[in-house]
Amino acid sequence: xxxxxxxxxxxxxxxxxxxxxxxxxxxxxxxxxxxxxxxxxxxxxxxxxxxxxxxxxxxxxxxxxxxxxxxxxxxxxxxxxxxxxxxxxxxxxxxxxxxxxxxxxxxxxxxxxxxxxxxxxxxxxxxxxxxxxxxxxxxxxxxxxxxxxxxxxxxxxxxxxxxxxxxxxxxxxxxxxxxxxxxxxxxxxxxxxxxx
Amino acid sequence: xxxxxxxxxxxxxxxxxxxxxxxxxxxxxxxxxxxxxxxxxxxxxxxxxxxxxxxxxxxxxxxxxxxxxxxxxxxxxxxxxxxxxxxxxxxxxxxxxxxxxxxxxxxxxxxxxxxxxxxxxxxxxxxxxxxxxxxxxxxxxxxxxxxxxxxxxxxxxxxxxxxxxxxxxxxxxxxxxxxxxxxxxxxxxxxxxxxxxxxxxxxxxxxxxxxxxxxxxxxxxxxxxxxxxxxxxxxxxxxxxxxxxxxxxxxxxxxxxxxxxxxxxxxxxxxxxxxxxxxxxxxxxxxxxxxxxxxxxxxxxxxxxxxxxxxxxxxxxxxxxxxxxxxxxxxxxxxxxxxxxxxxxxxxxxxxxxxxxxxxxxxxxxxxxxxxxxxxxxxxxxxxxxxxxxxxxxxxxxxxxxxxxxxxxxxxxxxxxxxxxxxxxxxxxxxxxxxxxxxxxxxxxxxxxxxxxxxxxxxxxxxxxxxxxxxxxxxxxxxxxxxxxxxxxxxxxxxxxxxxxxxxxxxxxxxxxxxxxxxxxxxxxxxxxxxxxxxxxxxxxxxxxxxxxxxxxxxxxxxxxxxxxxxxxxxxxxxxxxxxxxxxxxxxxxxxxxxxxxxxxxxxxxxxxxxxxxxxxxxxxxxxxxxxxxxxxxxxxxxxxxxxxxxxxxxxxxxxxxxxxxxxxxxxxxxxxxxxxxxxxxxxxxxxxxxxxxxxxxxxxxxxxxxxxxxxxxxxxxxxxxxxxxxxxx
Lengths: 196, 730
What we know:
The complex is a heterodimer. Chain A is α+β, with helices and mostly antiparallel strands.
């Protein structure tokens, strides 16, 4: 009898430990993703400074397969993000990615930047028509864009147009912002027009 | 810290934001207080309530992002006035598709009819556009448009002229349909002026030769298009309505990138085949679909079970004659306007293929790790590569190259196939992930141009789904840089670009293999390795009867690998004498041999002429790549295609109704019918938009829930023990 009780208690303890471990692990994963996003931005700001001093297309860390193409900031400077080249999932974990096919900021055509709705591009939901965004290129040139449209589109139907006559900037992220699961079809698109 | 998300969480800032933008972004943090209250309340209740809490905590409903309906987008969130998007009219596509495939196989030739029913369920008149795949050697020669009871036969026209005719009919409100070729294996069907609630059927017929390899015949029907990777810079104008703009590298990208949907009840296919193999069969089967098979003697009837299947997976029929029942040679002929056309298949003698001394080889494995391989494809590719590594002999050298947006090699140059090197390679392979673009050119170039090792035979094993748009540039690369190397392609996935696989292997003087399911990796890779040892028959020459000029394709017969037949199509520019013979010569490991075949034994069969014409068009297109001028090619192709009623890069089939039906004041909406996502592929990896959310929130929530459950369990144990202790005291 006493023995059965001991075993029962032991099993209970094991279950408890298991639940807590699993919980910690999952929670850790959940914290790791934004932490990586943040640390990467820190590293990239350094790479950005190096870019300013003439190093061509510097990699933010030795084994990186991408490089910073621009620095995006909001008017008040609350949000400052280093934009990386390429829109692959690997790149987006570290920072917003500039779609390689699209124009570079400041050039004529649409420059498309994608970012995660729950890390770097969380701030998109607070942008309003008429807000200004500043894009700084590695050579120091700065372009100011004014938000001209905000759309929610279905990625299965809509397509991004790259060949606009004006210089445009499109910031794309997933929608809705507070959905739990990733992989939904809706996208939140902030379009901005070159102001000056 | 430069990203200050925290600021938005701060109460005051949040309030300010809400005052400025409204409270649409309100998503409160979970209130842990309420759980404390729950616990306080439940502490006083029985243990069953506790169990309920556990269950609720674990099964708390999540907001599934994937199921968000467009209707949930509130009008205030969507501001109009943007020209950025070419949205379809509304969110629902009104045009539905139903496809029926009917195939009749006699001997070596299949005649297939594909009936596409365009059903307009919407309230508006539509123009339906559908980009669909066909087998890469298909000779498309018939178009029939059925409107209710009426049938309108299509005419073959030069491409521009056909388009003009179609556009004119479309503008005048008449029904019309047009079938154009985009790639050797990719076609577009358009049908104009489909009335609301109406169904228009576009029926296409094509001819195809049956593939024979190692004792089995096979016939493959592609069902969907794996979205292709488009490289280059976007061009200002677009010629089609696909998801990609035209680019500097792929000038017609917008025409070959149809929209893709993951699931659709409408994208169904029915399939029926009549098979008259002419010889008793030991086996007949469909590799990837469940089929019903019945037979009457040597005539077999094959149909998809349960009346249909989703169009997300190529269908492959395989049949094997009873051993030794198959004649060593088969000849089919057709006379058109005094010209003789012939299709010849011959199996070289087996007993000559004695194994030669093994030559040390340098094997370079190139594996595609682009986003389109994501899902089951990369698993198949990795398994295939692992098997290939096991097949290496110690005397061989090898290297592994992977590519997506970038090319990476395991070793700078190929290394000895020592146990330790192979172990390193296995680790490398198991760590491969599929994401990013499909920049195939640099990878192929690297494999073919790598430093050569004397006395080693270099064989490049190229594992890919071929979902690229710049096929031509790649063929040119292979032709120019091949040297003494040989290229073997292994097509992976539910819907690989088999045209690319076949032509690349042809240009690379190797063979191609398709693997479409994990369970066939072993079988097919073993077969590939058996073949790859060395070509078994070389220097093949076919001498056609008399002194007439023969135009044969392939012009020079490629080396044959184990189990492959000689397959050649020809045209003789005059009649053939009654007792004429065809002479075939070749060299095998055991020495040279020749065979003689009486022309008389040839069976007359219609369609042989069209198959020859199709082969000639392919040859002409190849020659254009090798430097022949565009105009010269065009003229030659148009001449052949018009004569044999074939769709080609420069000719299209068009069917036009005479009477206008759409009232002049109503609009016509253009709708592109989507293709189904190939089976096993993941949508995120290939959609034009990247995935822009992480699973961090789900992880965090799971973590909190699990820990909470643990904590509740803990307090429950304490509570219960103290409870039972109290009861004991009573």
